[in-house]
Amino acid sequence: MKHNPDDRSDNVERIQKNIDMTIENMHRADEMIEKTDDPNMKKTLKEKNDRREHALGGMRLEIEDEAKAREKRK
């Protein structure tokens, strides 16, 4: 079986898209928090946003690493 080569040429763009989508989801959750009166829903959405915020930090580090790796390949 022939393996496909590791193509990382679009990693920076892919990670940036994930960052943008995560930020959009955080904004939508914030809007829902403002609109709902359900304390359990508010708690759940706040917890999700906390996890998203944590994930953004990792994605930002990953995008920096990929950008550096891209520069080295040039």
Automatic annotation (TrEMBL):
Annotated spans, Disordered: 49-74
NCBIfam families (alphabetical): SASP_tlp (TIGR03090)
Protein name according to UniProt: Small, acid-soluble spore protein tlp
Source organism of the structure: Dethiobacter alkaliphilus AHT 1
Organismal lineage: Bacteria, Bacillati, Bacillota, Dethiobacteria, Dethiobacterales
